[in-house]
Design goal:
Oligomer: single chain
Structural class: alpha+beta
Strand order of the largest sheet: 1-2-3-4-8-7-5-6
Number of domains: 1
Largest sheet: 8 strands, antiparallel
Radius of gyration: 18 Å
Order of helices and strands: HEEEEEHHEHHEEH
Number of helices: 6
Distance between the termini: 48 Å
């Protein structure tokens, strides 16, 4: 990795092969989206990889580029009344907590001390943050994990730095995401 790039060109080719195989195995769709620089050069300077795996009434979408963290998302076909945001706690957040930064705590000191948790449904967050999911988030660099309203639907989104070349990491995220989507949908049906 150099000059802010996560992957070399050969690693991007390997990533494309692995993501395409993952898509085939999970009845999904894989595509490469080429972006060009601002100059008139015809060679692509940034490649985006998009992987879509069908689930329930939608699809789990994985999106990565040569420079940004992995983004995983799922759009619900309606507005979910609950929202949340989880992100790594930094030094500035620790100072703000002394001045009354409002956050939720889930009763796990290791997790509560590492992450800022905001949301309007503590019960839902406790259901979502299983031991397996917390361990996964703690063992990788989390940019953010959120459920938010976007226009006419709600979107579950995870931005995280992991080794995307390891297909087992994609499988783990897909499995955990499916569990979380099911929890959110079940919670909304009983409310």
């Amino acid at each position: 990795m150099s000059l802010g790039y996560k992957f070399s060109w050969s690693e991007m080719d390997l990533l494309a092969q692995r993501w395409e195989n993952f898509a085939i195995k999970h009845a999904g769709e894989f595509k490469i989206i080429n972006s060009h620089s601002f100059s008139n050069i015809s060679d692509p300077t940034l490649r985006k990889f998009e992987l879509k795996i069908p689930f329930e009434n939608g699809q789990i979408t994985f999106l990565t580029t040569e420079i940004k963290p992995l983004k995983v998302s799922y759009s619900f076909n309606r507005i979910i009344p609950n929202e949340f945001l989880i992100y790594n706690e930094d030094y500035f957040d620790k100072i703000l907590k002394h001045f009354g930064l409002n956050e939720l705590e889930i009763g796990d000191p290791d997790f509560d001390n590492k992450f800022i948790i905001k949301g309007n449904n503590e019960f839902l967050l406790r259901k979502i943050l299983t031991k397996e999911w917390k361990t996964f988030l703690q063992s990788n660099y989390l940019a953010n994990f959120k459920l938010e309203k976007v226009e006419v639907c709600s979107v579950l989104e995870l931005n995280i730095s992991i080794n995307e070349l390891e297909v087992s990491n994609l499988a783990k995220i897909a499995e955990l995401f499916k569990d979380i989507i099911s929890i959110i949908q079940y919670k909304c049906e009983i409310e």
